[in-house]
Amino acid sequence: MLLENCQTIKKQLVHRIAINEVFLTDMKQLSNNSNVIAAQLPKTHMYFNDVENGYYDATLLLQVFRQVSICITHHLYNISYSTKFIFSLDTGCKTVWDKSSLD
User: Is-above-0.90 flag for pTM?
Assistant: First the structure.
């Protein structure tokens, strides 16, 4: 299976406004519980990797994982683009359907 790296996925799939903040380039579903995702990581970026030292910034990798989880949720489970997500070290990812679910 060949994944594409020619362009990024739609920015709406990862809740980004600027296209230069979208790092995912392709996604394929292998089975119900398995997906393959391609990302193109910049060598330098205004927010991530602001110092070129030969290593990727951990926050850049965290942003890629964030984009992966949101993309899979929208693309494979047909969750609305207006759905909000909260990521937490304590609870993982919580999908927020409305304000009452934050209580």
Answer: no
pLDDT, position 43: 72
Pair 37, 24: CB distance under 8 Å: yes
> CB within 8 A of 31, min separation 6: which ones?
none
Report the distance separating Cα 86 and Cα 72, nearest Å.
15
The CA–CA distances, whole Å, from 7 to 2, 25, 71 equal 14, 6, 15
The lowest-confidence range among 39-43, 54-58, 96-100 is 96-100
CB-based contacts of 16, cutoff 8 Å, min separation 6: 22, 67
